[in-house]
């Protein structure tokens, strides 16, 4: 579809959706709960859509760019890893930024940076240049999910948060659908540079809606008294001081969230960046025919995003505990991913699409629930930081998996079997670890009465895990600076992870011993 028509349709749909929601909220009688919080949810949905359009462009054009610039599979893996590593480092500060300055300012800055970075890809002329552009994009995009989760915690009661999270998280699928609809046409007719320029520019349009429509619910003129009471219907958070990150890490709840994200987020990155080349290689597609299969995959995934959030929310409304509802929903999602292990042997294109679509839908349902765990377990003032820590862990491990996938494809001649096996097992492993660390999901004020000790499970796991993350990243950077690749690069990363784990545990014990109250 020509870009001018796509833009008009996108802008018209966005304006109509937001305008209709505003009208509904304004029309709500004083005695009824209004709906303006869903306008805010719509804005989060559109921002997430833009976020995924911008990051999807590289995956769609990867085969063509590899041919044009003579990249190897390892080069492509390192380019993807550059985005993930920068995204992780951005998350290290993004949650804190949102907690301190609020989502209105933080979200605006984040989206401006990532839009300009997306457009900057058009200037790249080498694998290194694309790596720099991807790193800049990662830093900017890191603010999206911490801002969105914090906004949901501020605007929705607990019983609606999973559904609201599922709706805005569905924007990732809509973005992934929009990208193959528009990007191949732009690249085919105007060149790959314009694909990056035009998709990046769309993000700046979102600010024209966000700035005038967003505000705190307690002071917003469009929020009725009844709706505000509904938003604030949960018991208020205990009046506690801001919790430093070093005090968040020893909580088993923080480790459960972060480890769960680190094992499953990389699978979504894998789908995003390697499913297009997988389909082109194994099923004979090209730039002009890749669109429909990808659109089908992400339409299926969008159902999972909303369905996963709805499932646990409906269970809670029926009287299930938060613990039972969230974990049951996550178990169902984890089981639905497992058929993906067969996809590399499938000869039928549309059967492969169905298997990948099912796994992507299950991931999105899982994601809606694991995001909500942060607001289930932590007070609002800490949610952004916890989500930032978890997102950082997921992105760093996504960087590690990108290097591993690139290496596997390089040495096996493009055989995707092992990466899909990893994808099939990741979610059940993550759920098992989450349950072992947090047998019962509840607020940290209810489950933790005193600071964690230096020899506690939370301290050892939390700081050891952080050490693995940063050690692996340091190993990757050291390997690149030493100009090693392939197996040697993985050895650098493994050595860094081992050293980091030991150093993290030792430092964590010392920190908690010093900070522990007498």
Concise structural overview:
The chain has 518 residues and is mainly alpha-helical.
Using brief descriptors, characterize the structure shown:
mainly alpha; 518 residues
Describe this structure in words.
- The chain has 518 residues and is mostly helical.
- It is 80% helix and 0% strand.
- Helix 4 (103-120) runs antiparallel to helix 6 (144-155) and helix 14 (322-337) packs antiparallel against helix 17.
- The longest helix has 34 residues, at 36-69.
- The protein is globular, with a radius of gyration of 22 Å.
- The model is unreliable at 1-31 and 446-451 (pLDDT under 50).
Tell me the strand percentage band: under 5%
How many distinct beta strands?
Answer: 0
Largest sheet: none
Order of helices and strands: HHHHHHHHHHHHHHHHHHHH
Backbone CA Rg:
22 Å
Report the uncertain regions.
1-31, 446-451
Distance between the termini: 67 Å
Write the layout of secondary structure elements.
Layout: H1 3-27, H2 36-69, H3 73-101, H4 103-120, H5 127-141, H6 144-155, H7 158-169, H8 171-190, H9 192-213, H10 225-231, H11 245-248, H12 252-283, H13 291-317, H14 322-337, H15 349-377, H16 380-412, H17 417-437, H18 444-447, H19 457-481, H20 487-515
